[in-house]
Amino acid sequence: HDLGEAGADVVGVDWRVPLDEAARRVGPGKALQGNLDPAVLFADEAAIREKTTEVLDAARGLEGHIFNLGHGVLPTTDPGVLTDLVADVHERSRR
Prior knowledge:
Elements: E1 10-12, H1 19-26, E2 31-36, H2 45-59, E3 65-69, H3 79-93
Parallel strand pairs: 1-2, 2-3
Helix pairs in contact: 2-3
């Protein structure tokens, strides 16, 4: 649990690391942030929604999760796609 001992309350997760594996690595009491592959945002709407669902499903049961990309926004990403993604995640993760 070296990552969990670094003192952070939230740990960012790269898109190549499954959320359950990240949770195991950081240990209890930490929230995770991530981890949609930023390249997915170049796919069609159905594929983006499918991959978003995978991240949201993987986050269920975690002690805390902040949906985000598993890296930065790529320079040629359409801002409208980001707007749609944020709206979709807000709608589906509303408590």
